[in-house]
Each structure stands twice: as structure tokens, then as C-alpha cells.
Amino acid sequence: MKKLLLLYLLFSVSIYAQQDSNVTHNAEVPKMQWFKEAKLGIFIHWGIYAVNGIPESWSFYNGTISHEDYLRQADNFTARNYDPQAWADLIAESGARYSVITTKHHDGFALWDSKDGVFNAAKNSPAKKDLIAPFVNALRKRNLKVGLYYSLPDWSYADYTDKTKMEKRYKIAGEPERWRKFQKYSFGQMQELKKEFDPDLWWFDGDWEHTAEEWDVNGIKDLLTDNRPDVIFNSRLNGNGDYETPEIGIPVYKPQAKYWELCVTMNDSWGFQQNDKNYKSSQQIIDLFTDCISKGGNLLLDIGPKADGSIPDEQERILKDLGRWTKKHEEAIFKTDAGIAYEHFNGPTTLSKDHRTLYVFVRDVPKDGKIFLKGITNKIHRVYVVGDGTLLTYKNYYKVYWNAYPGVTYIDIPENVIDENYTVLGVVLDGEVSLFKEKTGAIESN
Ligand code: GLC
After folding, report:
1. Is this structure's pTM higher than 0.90?
2. 6 domain-assigned
3. Ligand 1 pocket, mutate which of 49, 203, 209, 247 (most atoms under 8 A from CB)
4. 244 alpha carbon – ligand 1 mean position (Å)
5. Do 59 and 106 contact (CB within 8 A), yes or no?
6. Taking burial as the number of CB atoms within 10 A of a residue's CB, which of 61, 109, 177, 440 is the most buried?
7. 290 and 164, same structural domain?
8. Domain annotation covers residue 93
9. What is the pairing mode between strands 370-374 and 408-412?
């Protein structure tokens, strides 16, 4: 009997040690803190492609429209109803903490009044003004972080290597001087953007067209971190960035990267396309968002304003619906860490900074009104409804005194607390969350 007891004690100590190592508080990279806590950003693809409502840049690159006809869209890019403060207000209302706007897409049309450029909203369109400056100011007024998207390729620039899929202008090895001319121009543009707008984040794109050496990624980073060592870069600098940018598809498994951001469209287009009505519902966007934060990432959700600067109704609706939900559940979303594995709860979760509160996101409440958590070793102090405060009852099953297996806890969710999108529960634990990782259940020997 004594022997058995000793064995049991040894067994539980080893399990305990294993459980403890589940909880890793990785040291944060200081400059990444705001990004990690922000969770939601709004991406904006705005450009002359909104005039005809065709794919941004790719439509002429792939030959569905001629380059000339594509560029001619600039004549009708009016920005007549552009209200940057209303944009920033809507973004803030959605709960987003930052926004990333296309200052220049692969087509080379700049939204700001670029001195180094030849093709921009102020000089070459009826908008006749710098469209980035007032938006950056409006974001800052709302305390939102500023991200600038900048395309490395510029398919319309006469000294850039590629024009379309079929038409290449030259090879760098053959005309290095010409490439240097292009670099002088694009470095000049980046310098302007830095000086005028001092962004918190640079979102590069199109790095696949050349190598890191050809782009001079080190030179770009030196230029942009000068006096601004805390500025953040996405990874589309041939992998030399601060965080990864999976696109469209949510990673099925938790990504290995410490920092990541899923960029995604609300319908199937980055820019405004009147014929694309294939919108996800607000519920589906919230499904995606909870999955992202549960896996420790951010969601960069795209909108595509029209050529007159108005935001399509469907997009505004989604941002407002998101806002209703994020506001109510703020404490479970922002400043949290990734949650626990889906084996422990059949849905998304997050953890408070101190890992002592587990937030559980319940999409649909089962018929019997109960959801359950598996293999949580902690004692539960209480369970409450986030954004409402109601205390909930819960009960543990399958726990036996002779084994460390913590059993299954059922939590009762009454109908009157159910949220139309996700009901969020705060599960207050007796310490940092501790998960049972043993392969076996309650069987010790047989
Ligand atoms: C892609 C596309 C581009 C889009 C971007 C957004 O790289 O080239 O059109 O702007 O992804 O992530």
C-alpha cells in the first residue's frame, strides 16, 4: 500500500512538472507589444482600379485590360465624397486598433502627392489632392496606429524591370544603371512617406519579383528605421520582417511564428468591385477573427472604398457588426494571449495576460445549454459572462481521487445571456492555466 502511495506521488509530481511547462510566457519583443495587443486592423485597398471595379494592378498585368485603358481610370478617380475622418471613425468603431492603407499598389498610382513620382492622385486625377495626409491625421486623432502599404514593384514606371506578364523591360544584370535609377526613385518615395507620415508599420508587398539583394532590403530597413528604431515591418521583404502575413486562408493549425497577421478580403476582392457580392456574413468574419486571436494572431480585414471615396454599404455593415461585438467583449480580445488547444475546448479561447483567466468563445449553445472544458487541472474560482457579468454554474465530472486526471467541467449557459454572435465566458482559475497532457485517462494500471 505504502509502495503504491509513493508511486502515485511520483506519478503526480511528474505530471505536474509536465503541465507546468505548458505555460510559457515568451518574452515579447518590446516594439511588437502594441501590435500583439491590437488584434484587429483594417486594410484599405484604394486606387484607380475602383473606377471600373476591376482587380487592382493584376488586371493589366495579366492582360484583361490594356495598360493604357487601365491608367485612363485615373481620369475618373474623383474622391468626391472622401471623408477621412468618417473612415477613421468607422475603423475605430469596428474595434480595430490600426489600419494599413495602400499608398501605392503595383500599378504605381500613388495616393499621396509624391515629389519623386510621376503618377499620383494630386497631379493625375480629378481628386487633385494628397489623399494619405488627411487620413493619417484622422487615424492619429482616434488614437489608431498608422500602417502604410507600399508595393516594391511599380509596373507603370518606365525604369522598372517588369511591365506586364508578357512584357519585361530589361534584366537588372544587363542594365544595372537603369535599375539604380528605379531604386533612387523608390527610395525617394519611401523617404517621403517616412518624413511626411512617420508610420508605425510598413506593409511591403511584391517582394517575389526580385531578391533581397536586388531590392536592397538592408538599405530599405536602414532608411526606415533611422530615428525610428521601433517601426514594424511585415515579412514581405523577402522574409526580413517582424511578422508573418498569411493571406486569405486562416492557418488550420496554430502557426509557429511568434507574430502573425492574417490579411483577408470581405468578399473576393481587395479593391472595390461592384460585381463582387460574395461577402462573408458578419458572423463568418467573427468566426475568422476569434480563430485568429485564439491562435495568437491578428486579423487585417480589408475594405475597398469606391472611386468617390465612399465605403460600400456591405463593408460598413460588417465593420459596425464587428464593433458591436468587440466593444462588448473587449477584455477577452485585446491584450490577451493565444488560448488553449482545441482539444480542451471545442472552439476558440484566449488567455488574460496573467494566464489566470481563460476566455471561452461559444458560438452556438448546445440544446442542453451546457458547454464543457476538458483536462484543465486548475480549480475554477468562478465563471462569468463577459460584457454582462452574470455568474454561471458549473460542475466537474469524471474526476477520481486516486488519479490526477482533472475530468470534464460542464458550464451552464442560460438563454438570457446568449450573444447573437459569440457568447464569451470568463473562467477564473486558481493560478496560471495548467493543462493535463497525459495520454491516458483515469486508468493507472490494468
Ligand atoms: C497580393 C497581391 C495584391 C494584394 C496583396 C494583399 O500580394 O499582389 O494585389 O494587394 O496581396 O495582401
Report:
1. yes
2. no
3. 247
4. 14
5. no
6. 109
7. yes
8. yes
9. antiparallel
